[in-house]
Amino acid sequence: MGGGYAESRESSQSSQNPTSATVSAEDQGTSANGTSSAQFSGHDDSPAAMAAGGEPGGDVVGENGEVESVCRILAATAVTDSDAVGVAEAVAVGETGAKGGETEANGGPLMLGAEERFSARVLHRFKGTDATHVSVRRGEEVTVHQLTSTSWWYVETPRGEYGFVPVSYLEKPAELQASDENEDTSTQWEDSQYFESYAHAEIHNEMLSDFPRTDAYRRAIEGTALEGKVVMDVGCGSGVLSMFAARAGAAHVYAVEASDLAAVTREVVAANGLADRITVINGKVEELAEDALPGKVDLIISEWMGTLLVFEGMLESVLVARDRWLADDGAMFPSDAALFFAPVRAEQYFAEKIDFWREQFGFDFSPLRALAVDEFLQKPRWNHVFTPEDVMAEPALLYRPCMRTMRAQDWEAFATPDEQPMRFVFRQAGLCHGLGSWFDVTFDGGLPRRAASEPPVTLSCAPGQPLTHWKHDLLAFDAPVAVEAGTEMTVRVKVVRNPVYRRHLRVQVHYAIAGVTTDGEEQFKEFKVWR
Hints:
alpha+beta
């Protein structure tokens, strides 16, 4: 299916700075670079602070220099980021009363009283990059003093250092993890929005025009002995895969389509003289009645793949169909998939989006570079194109699901084992701009093939193969890394399904490059796909 049709325009939480945050006088200490945290106490007269509900000169401390608890910990997640204003608005000081008062519903950071402060384990090493940050090490416990925004917390390290740390680098207490579900659901990608996006001609034009994709399905389906077989097409769209199956001799095809396109698909089927052999069912496969089909099917076909293989979450519907309708000796097309990663160069993209911010028309635009990094590099670029020369090391396999045996919970999160990271040896010297990713799928369901001597059909999206509409995915570092031929790189990747926006993902990347990253320690970056 599509690769990035519902990309969310939300700000990155991994690189913006909480520069307008306020901490109490009680929290005075020393940041990682020796700067006293007392400098962060006091007033915030910025326009961002006022826009967020603060008053000029408003403090968050009470009369005695201590901050009183103004709301429960769970209320902290009501603070949101803004694309237009950035984190400065999220951490702006809210209005307070005479004794610390009450933070307004849209107000500022939540200061925790002594009894409310809690410990959080550091999930990923974070190296502070300015005076407001504090560096933390993976595995250590920090004390959280302030829930500054949804992106940054103010913490104390075991070494007595104070500063800001990205929330995504910390393990939240269970009650705060549960409260993540309080996110604004008005923009949630609901099923109705997802299916509606597939009710338009444009997306099916793109998919039917993707010859490598569509022809791979044609060769796999028409190369299988389907005479007398019953087929189910999950997410049939324009109906092309169903018609391939009917043309290959299937006794009957049940084409399930949840979008309103189903009515037009029926017309397409009839126009091709196949209405007696293809039944188009308008509805979600999860909601079909038990008698929607007369019995089990011999083959389930579906084109469910997306960015990083599993984005859009259609895989779940296919597994539901399998568990409800597939015969014990039935087959799945595709039968297997494989998701690959490799270090890559992306010089042109960085030149156009990042290095562009230097001198233009005789003026220095370099202050915009950090903004460009936030905007262009915090989510995967899902329509990137790599040449084989851009791939700097032999690709490594991250994930290989078998459609016949995998369970629905298997793709809630999948990752490289900690003790077995992906290992790369750079084949060439140059700048490594990040990681590239692509997938292959194979059609080897176990049903008899017409030409038994021919290998199963494989659709490969790898660089150098015929380009598909999925193209490739670029997970870019914030800055390129210079490497020499023979340099070793280790990478751990974890793909996690969003617990709220179920069709979206988070991708966590840990990497270390011998002789390049500090003391060989892992660097960390998290990407949203797309929420």
